[in-house]
Design goal:
Layout (H helix, E strand, L loop, with lengths): L28 H6 L10 E4 L5 E6 L5 E8 L13 H8 L11 H6 L5 E6 L4 E8 L3 H14 L4 H21 L3 H12 L13 H6 L2 H11 L5 E7 L3 H12 L23 E7 L6 E8 L7 H12 L5 H9 L3 E9 L5 E9 L5 H17 L4 H18 L3 H13 L6 H11 L2 H11 L6 E7 L57 E4 L5 E6 L5 E8 L13 H7 L10 H10 L3 E6 L4 E8 L3 H13 L5 H18 L3 H14 L20 H11 L6 E6 L3 H12 L22 E5 L6 E8 L8 H12 L5 H8 L4 E9 L6 E8 L4 H17 L4 H18 L3 H14 L5 H10 L3 H11 L6 E6 L5 H7 L4 E4 L12
Parallel strand pairs: 2-6, 7-11, 13-17, 18-22, 18-23
Antiparallel strand pairs: 1-2, 3-5, 3-6, 4-5, 8-10, 8-11, 9-10, 12-13, 14-16, 14-17, 15-16, 19-21, 19-22, 20-21
Length: 949
């Protein structure tokens, strides 16, 4: 069971949410624990072809889509000696040409018809997955079989993708704060013998040393039918699926040689280790503790999953409650439960709060582990963790893709297709004694590997430890098979044609019903009865656009505080009550609105909505909570300012909007946050959180009449202060600028070209969305083709037209190695300009429309996706029937409208250019084309000023 948390710390806005409401009291812990946990088992069929390919199918006729996934039983643990990153390199190469497919045709077969594709590399597997309209299933099966059987790896493709992988490494590892901690050092310290010790992303040195012969040998060794699992889930005819699988996969030969397997066993760790490093661009100290875990299919895994939930599942978890909330030692504290085919690893980490030491953090973390060993957990904690796992499992099975992924992971990692279902059943039986037993068995002090990760400014002459793959790690060399076939692309006239799509399957568009309470509150309901899940959100016009001058972050802070205490509930009680239901609660602000939202199992809607009503109607805004939230926001800003990609976007907003509120940092800055008073927060709430300005959106397994009755009961007597809404001041548009923010030692440069855009209500909105999709949405967009695919200058490049109540921002951005920043600036500007100079060809236009329509369709398959779309419509002031008019509106855009919209919103002539990176590596070259550029040291940036200085 891969119940992992892999989101790295990016700022206070991403810290976990949780909360609850008014009079209703959740069921006692024993009553909750007694309720049988029910998740429908995965209903699959299975068979094995004569060549060894395992085929699984999950039919779901409620969707118009189908998910096709091929998981290969090869991961980074199988990378040969001296060739780390090979499995990951193949994740990239598999999207190139085959005997019958040209380079990037896999993207054309998915993205261009409204689907999408992706892949990932894990220690144990490499998986390739697509979601497409159901009538394109045969085409995807053909393509997956062709790249399994006849991948073409040329010198040109190999060199280009190697450059892309290097940029990915720079992006994820070198440029991102804490990238090295999680991607490099965590595996290094966790294993002394097993090749799991090596980072899956590899190293630039090993990538440079790789040869095309090595790559072809690796493919021949592992990419074969008897080392793969095919899973198809969604709307299909089972008999037809079997025929297609036989037609395209059965003829792929099974090599007459064994598949090399890693048989190395990681010895138990019997003595603790502790290492310290000092790293550049590290905003706050961090501590990571690593412990060994049994294989995923071990009987102890369910108890470990419950232990993990108790330790880090939500704001009522021990780590958040004690380290982040109560003691304010950490800006974030979390865990990874990383179970694998063989010995796994359990990581607990903390990003320390400003002013707190790593020593304090480590001591507190070890205290939490000791408590789990020394004392049984409470029945309430046990029930809460189980309910949270149940809700997460329900949500993961809401789509065909989620079901397919769950099944495939069970087969490859758990070694049994029934693993996920059996582990859920076992979780229901876990006792407090089981949790204590596994804590004692696996989490002893002598079993820990500790890493202290400090800013280089703290070194003061001290030398950190050198952390690398241990010399005792055992890695097998690459054995080149004697029968490696070098595939070449067939001449155009000799290629087997991709099958034609079948008859289209029409998606089901959800229908929203709206009523209004006597006090003016809009109640918007969508019934979605396929899974027992409900999401409810209340939204009000309390966005950051109304932040007082010089007090950026007021709306964000006010929204965060909604779940941090009411007149009758403390923040801890809110978290405990919602999470005991297996639910989650959150609150936040965007530019034009703020919201509070809860997701819960359908049988717990009443108590959950009661809590949601309480946090929306009765926030306390206690001074102690304000100071706590302010400190977390300040720590989050500290992290963002060390990330070149994030900082380039922040600076670009200020360059485009000047002193207007949209130019602020939504979460506030180190200067603005300390200025915000409780009166500012109370006033921000009072102006906007009124029933006649708000809406309640309820989506999921609930009848419309029941949701309306619940709204009347919980919100019918709500009366707001009726404070007048003052429109934001009108500020002149600023002149475009070229700004270089110097961040010495930055692992990459963040590049943004940005300009003023349009409002959501603008008549050209849909044409602008299609123009933007052509420019920079998806893998086959023009920006990504020019920057990543053709030149290997970035891991990805994209653009957005952020239309808000008032005209928002248009931006095109990427991250690249520092020396290539000037070239990337020129490429982005050229592509932006081209779109306004000539009509988009019909085939390209159709594909870009399909990207938007497909993305929308996948969003409204999910309960929280429907709720999110409706909340956006309320915030932006557009009709609710946009749910049904969005697709025809996109499809109705013609080439002339796209060209006109591109001239209007994408022309780079009026745009600002921002590059954040190590200026000495690119500023002279950039100055040749932009002689008036400004250079601002990152340490001198004033994000509260229109001039940035």
């Amino acid at each position: 069971m891969r119940l992992t948390r892999t989101a790295l710390y990016l700022g206070a806005a991403l810290l976990p949410f949780t909360a609850q409401a008014q009079e209703a009291t959740p069921a006692p812990a024993k009553e909750i624990a007694a309720k049988e946990i029910r998740v429908a088992p995965l209903a699959y069929t299975e068979r094995t072809l004569l060549n060894g390919l395992k085929v699984y199918a999950i039919r779901d006729t409620s969707t118009a889509n189908v998910s096709v996934q091929v998981w290969y039983d090869v991961g980074s643990k199988d990378d040969p000696a001296g060739k780390s990153g090979f499995a990951h390199m193949f994740e990239h190469l598999m999207f190139k040409g085959t005997r019958n497919l040209v380079d990037e045709q896999m993207d054309r077969l998915t993205e261009d018809v409204g689907g999408y594709n992706n892949a990932s590399t894990n220690s144990d597997y490499t998986n390739y997955y697509e979601v497409v309209p159901a009538n394109h299933l045969e085409r995807l099966l053909f393509a997956e079989a062709d790249r399994m059987a006849s991948l073409v790896v040329s010198e040109k493709v190999f060199a280009s993708e190697r450059d892309v992988v290097k940029e990915e490494l720079r992006n994820r590892v070198l440029a991102s704060p804490y990238g090295k901690l999680f991607y490099i050092y965590f595996p290094n310290i966790s294993y002394s013998t097993h090749p799991y010790a090596r980072p899956g992303i590899g190293s630039i040195e090993d990538l440079d040393a790789a040869t095309i012969g090595d790559i072809r040998a690796f493919h021949a060794t592992y990419y074969r039918p008897d080392n793969a699992v095919l899973v198809v889930a969604g709307n299909f005819d089972p008999a037809q699926l079997d025929k297609w699988v036989d037609k395209y996969f059965a003829g792929i030969a099974k090599p007459n040689r064994p598949i090399p397997r890693v048989t190395v066993a990681e010895p138990p760790r019997t003595a603790p280790t502790r290492q310290t490093v000092y790293e550049a661009n590290t905003p706050l100290p961090a501590v990571l503790l690593s412990y060994q875990l049994p294989p995923d299919n071990d009987p102890d895994t369910p108890a470990l999953a419950v232990l993990d939930g108790i330790l880090s599942g939500g704001e009522n978890s021990r780590l958040y409650r004690n380290l982040v909330y109560r003691d304010q030692l950490a800006a974030q504290a979390d865990t990874f439960l990383d179970t694998r085919q063989q010995t796994g690893s359990y990581a607990m980490y903390a990003i320390l709060a400003g002013g707190k030491s790593a020593e304090e953090g480590e001591k507190a973390m070890r205290r939490e582990i000791a408590d789990l060993r020394d004392k049984p957990v409470s029945e309430a904690e046990l029930a809460e963790a189980k309910n949270e796992i149940l809700t997460a499992s329900l949500k993961s099975r809401e789509t065909a893709e989620g079901k397919a992924s769950t099944l495939a992971a069970s087969i490859i990692v758990g070694r049994d297709p029934r693993a996920a279902d059996e582990q859920l059943a076992a979780i229901a039986r876990v006792t407090a004694a089981d949790v204590q037993r596994v804590a004692r068995k696996y989490l002893g002090d002598n079993q820990s590997a500790a890493l202290i990760y400090l800013p280089d400014t703290m070194a003061k002459g001290a030398k950190g430890d050198t952390i690398a793959v241990a010399s005792t790690v055992k890695v097998a060399p690459l054995i080149v098979p004697s029968d490696v076939v070098i595939h070449t692309q067939a001449p155009e006239g000799q290629r087997i044609a991709v099958p034609a799509p079948g008859p289209a399957v029409s998606p089901v568009i959800p229908k929203a019903t709206e009523t209004k309470l006597a006090n003016g509150l809009r109640v918007i309901v969508v019934e979605k009865r396929d899974l027992p899940i409900v999401t409810a959100t209340i939204v009000a016009p309390a966005g950051g656009v109304r932040d007082p001058d010089g007090k950026a972050g007021t709306a964000s802070l006010a929204a965060d505080l909604l779940t941090k205490g009411t007149a009758t509930r403390s923040a801890e009680q809110i978290a405990q009550q919602v999470e005991s239901l297996g639910g989650s609660i959150g609150a936040g602000a965007d530019w034009d609105a703020a919201f509070a939202t809860v997701t819960v199992k359908a049988d717990q809607v009443d108590p959950a909505l009661t809590i949601l009503a309480d946090v929306a109607r009765n926030p306390a805004f206690a001074q102690a909570e304000i100071e706590r939230a302010r400190k977390q926001s300040l720590d989050g800003v500290t992290v963002q300012l060390k990330d070149p990609g994030a900082l380039s976007g922040i600076v670009a907003s200020r360059a485009v909007f000047g002193s207007r509120a949209y130019g602020n940092l939504l979460s506030g800055t180190a200067t603005s946050l300390p200025r915000i008073t409780r009166d500012d927060i109370v006033n921000a709430y009072g102006r906007a959180w009124n029933p006649d300005r708000s809406a309640l959106v309820v989506v999921g397994d609930i009848a419309s009449k029941d949701a309306a009755a619940m709204a009347q009961k919980l919100f019918g007597d709500w009366k707001g202060p009726n404070v007048a809404m003052v429109p934001p001041p009108v500020v002149p548009v600023t002149n475009p600028r070229v700004i270089v923010v110097d961040m010495p030692g930055s692992g990459q440069a963040g590049v943004v070209i940005a300009r003023p855009g349009i409002a959501r209500a603008d008549k050209d909105f849909y044409a602008a969305q299609v123009a933007n999709a052509t420019l920079g949405v998806g893998f086959t967009s023009r920006l990504n083709r020019e920057i990543r695919i053709k030149r290997g200058l970035a891991y990805g490049a994209g653009s957005s037209v952020d239309a808000r109540r008032a005209p928002g921002i248009v931006s095109a951005s990427t991250q690249t190695k520092n020396p290539s920043a000037p070239e990337v600036v020129s490429l982005i500007a050229a592509e932006m300009k081209k779109l306004g100079e000539a009509p988009v060809p019909a085939a390209e236009l159709d594909s870009r429309k399909a990207v938007l329509v497909g993305s929308f369709g996948r969003r409204i398959e999910r309960t929280d996706g429907i709720a999110g779309a409706l909340v956006d419509y309320v915030a932006d002031g557009v009709p609710l029937d946009t749910l049904s008019t969005y697709i025809p509106s996109i499809q109705g855009v013609d080439p002339a409208a796209v060209q006109a919209a591109a001239k209007k919103v994408l022309d780079p002539t009026g745009a600002s250019i921002v590059v954040v990176g190590d200026a000495k590596l690119f500023v002279d070259e950039l100055r040749k084309t932009h002689p008036n550029l400004e250079v601002i040291p990152a340490t001198a940036l004033n994000l509260d000023s229109a001039t940035l200085t």
